[in-house]
Automatic annotation (TrEMBL):
Domain NAD-dependent epimerase/dehydratase: 10-209
Predominant place of localization: membrane
Annotated keywords: Membrane
CDD domains the record matches: CC3_like_SDR_a (cd05250)
Entries under Pfam families matching the protein: Epimerase
InterPro entries: Epimerase_deHydtase, NAD(P)-bd_dom_sf
Protein's name according to its UniProt entry: Oxidoreductase
GO CC annotations, alphabetized: membrane
Amino acid sequence: MVQIQGGTAVVAGATGLVGQELVRMLLEHPSYSRVIALVRRELGFSHPKLEERRISFDRLEEEIDEQLLRDADVFCALGTTIKQAGSKEDFRRVDYAYPLALGRAARRYGAACFVIVSAMSSSERSMMFYSRVKGEVERDLAALGLQRLVVLRPSLLLGDRTESRPGERLAIVLSRPLGALMIGPLVKYRAIDSRDVACAMIAAARNEGPAHEVLESNEISSLAAAVRRKRPV
């Protein structure tokens, strides 16, 4: 796709592991002149391209409009854990209700592309609550009829988290020596750097593709690597 100047990127989940990397890359990307972060609290830094919109995600559809979303690339990196959220109900609100509300607004106001971070294990038929919720939001976003929907399903995310996740830290430590053994059909289970996910999100939005595209973790890594071969991100 031709890299058009003056584009708008809208980011939900800008304070998370992937979201922070995504905002940084979008601010450096030549295709975007505006990067609008939908936040509940200030990001703590400024940039000539950056606009912060403090909103209540419970009233998301009431607080964003056509002027914000028309022809924009919308990036959704919202996500939590049941421990962080405090209950299954609150987890579902963050990982299902908020992304779906953003998707409805993107459809209503003519966003060019909607890119969301899901999970490798997502399936609406999963016995695991986490994976089932991820699968349900993928299903219901696909039913909206967005101009273009890209779903990324990363494996275990590597990066500097602000919150403590002891179990995940152990998995990350173990993933490093095991990663080299994951070849063939197992390659998609390798842990992936949050920067690669952010890089692939932008590349997917800028590239031409089908109306509904799903990228598994190994495909995310390959896309990010292809981008870096052309231009450091």
